[in-house]
Amino acid sequence: MKDLTPEKSTLDPIEIASRDEIEALQLERMQRSVSSAYNNVAHYKKAFDDKGVHPEDLKALSDLSSFPFTVKQDLRDNYPFGMFAVPKEQVNRIHASSGTTGQPTVIGYTANDLQVWSEVMRRSLRAAGMRRGDVLHNAYGYGLFTGGLGVHGGAEQMGLTVVPVSGGMTQRQVRLIEDFGAKGISVTPSYALSILDEYREQGFDPKASPLEVGIFGAEPWTNAMREEIEAAFDMHAIDIYGLSEVIGPGVSMECVESKDGLHIWEDHFYPEVINPETGEILADGELGELVFTSLTKEAFPIVRYRTRDLTRLLPGTARSMRRMEKITGRSDDMIILRGVNVFPTQIEEQLMSVEQLAPHFQIELSKKDRMDAMLVKVEAVPGLDSSDARRAAAQSLAEKIKSSIGVTAEVIAGDTGSVPRSQGKAVRVVDNR
What we know:
α8 links the parallel β6 and β7. This protein is of the alpha/beta class. It has a 9-stranded mixed beta sheet with strand order 4-3-5-6-7-8-9-14-13, with helices on both faces. α1 packs across α2. The mean pLDDT is about 95. It is built from 10 helices and 21 strands. It has helices at about 20-40, 40-50, 70-75, 110-130, 145-160, 170-180, 190-200, 225-235, 345-350, 385-405, and strands at about 95, 105-110, 135-140, 160-165, 185, 215, 235-245, 250-255, 260-265, 270-275, 290-295, 305-310, 315, 325, 330, 335, 340, 355-370, 370-380, 410-415, 430. It starts with 18 loop residues before the first helix and ends with a strand.
């Protein structure tokens, strides 16, 4: 893989500023943003008043801990525009969640919000190793989902040539990557595996593709999957993080030169990590639930939003801004099986260590004789046709899951394509209990 480390002179000054400079800017912006939320959003005025706090109480960054959390249900309860802090005529764009698990959450952006979003995405793309004039194959979904348009805005501001292909039509994805000479691809990691399968199906050598950078996000993925993708394509696989409630993709980004966690763009987003059960703030380095407060958003300021994503905060390395460890899972995606906490990423990590199995999987949970049961559906690698060999590979994975995680799982190794594919976020768990 090529060395794609950006020149230090090309970085924004705030990326390599001192911690004192960063924290002074954070406090100034936080005071303004929290005041805007209180003065313009009825939900925040009531929540602050009920807890007995006021924006004037925010005299240091540590004072934020006395303010109430915001949760997704608050956004649903104020559907569609109750959380907006500006009149609708100042809202230039609206994004929304699918609403498949409840009332959709609706996010608004002013013209300045869109500019900030483009700036943090430009910064993220540069950190991944992209440069002005490079071709970016953007396979994130366009529409109400923030992925496609969020990446697109930053790519155009950076001066990339953007191919807005979105998801789907996997055969065409391969053709366009090859014909247009894409240096970078932005896509969910699970769909990247589908594109990899299609490369092989069409008889192309993925190592010979023009791709040098993959920008993967929207779902948790392991370092084992990173190694698989990097080896297959001979490209850098970089993690990006974001969520629509905070802005979209570009909240934090790995740097291609280090790949040691995602640097949070702390001049726009203030992070905390809390104990998900008690709400207590945890020290940097401790694993807990990630919480964000926006510092510069106008249309949709968010105060102490509980993301449900599990990670830990770490000191900066390639940048001055703090890092977050790769997301290990979500507190609301955690499987509790016979008293044991299990995350899909733990299953993925063990799957990637069995050479006879492809990296596609889905977990089905059910009840058998009033007991919880886990079935893990996987695929044998092409050419592993022997039923005995498939059973042996499935048994190997089952043993690894038992020894490393402590749960008993039935594993079935099917044919290529037997595990459902997704053009966006993968459906890892089907709970039939």
